[in-house]
Amino acid sequence: MTPVLERHEIEAFLAVAEELHFRRATERLGLAQGRVSQIVGRLERRLGVPLFTRTSRKVILTPAGQQLYDGLAPAHQQIQEAVGKALAVGKGVTGTLRVGFSSAWASDAVLRTAESFRRTHPGCLVEIQEVPLCDTFGPLRAGELDLQLTEFPMEEPDLVAGPVIFSEPRALMVPADHPFARQESVCQEDLAHAPLIAVTGDSPAYWTDYIWPRKTPQGRPIPQGPAFRYWMEVPSLVASGQGVSIASLRAARYYARPSLTYVPLRDAPPLDYGLMWRCDGYTARVRKFGETLCRITPGHAAEDHDPA
């Protein structure tokens, strides 16, 4: 008689098959440490075949495990979508959700979330647009956006600061021939020795000063270089030697040029990227999208190489 798989066994197996990492699968499902390994182990004993090959460095599917995954994954997705459709109708997750982002890496997270969100809430249209750094809270406040993933801090009385989704180390974007480019890292006091290219516009001073400070921690003034309104202006301004600018260290992967170098800013606090929405705009759509984003965004827990 063919064994009947319980729901928790199916979810645990699929999570490990997709993550190929027991700890990440456990975190993804929100279970206690070691729980997924126990569930999969019992399932293998009950089926009488190994589903995974485990070593100290990696986890891979066995041929039987691959066959089981190929059969279960599409069916499980269909079930999830059917449940999502029913819940969307019952809970009102329909209409249009407008989501903003301020950086390429935030865009990646939003796009991944939108893809998952559309599968479980097909009655809700998700529109995505970039938030200008020169007016980082303007589109949200004006009702042009319902939700956004942008840099903190946020201290606006009519807006709500949601959870931090990820944090990024800071770097200093400098011309490739700048003296700073030859250093392994720089400190905040070094900012007193180069014009800083910073944003201008309608964003509040506390926000712009937190990212592009006007003084060092010791109170030394930081020379001000040309101002920009949109981020895509910054690499060209820096590459042409008109100054340096603060950036996420991850920006080096998105805006690499031979004429630019990204030097870690070793003593500066990280840049936190979080969700925010209007005080009167916490709809079912906003709540469900935020929950989906928190659930699928990698990096909430430290990565490691222990597959068990």
Structure description:
The protein is an alpha/beta fold and 308 residues long. It folds into 3 domains: 83 residues, Orthogonal Bundle (Arc Repressor Mutant, subunit A); 101 residues, 3-Layer(aba) Sandwich (D-Maltodextrin-Binding Protein, domain 2), CATH 3.40.190.10; 100 residues, 3-Layer(aba) Sandwich (D-Maltodextrin-Binding Protein, domain 2). Helices cover 37% and strands 22% of the residues. The chain has 10 helices and 12 strands. The strands form 4 sheets. A 5-stranded mixed β-sheet has the order 4-3-5-12-6, with helices on one face. Helix 1 crosses helix 2. The longest helix has 29 residues. It is globular.
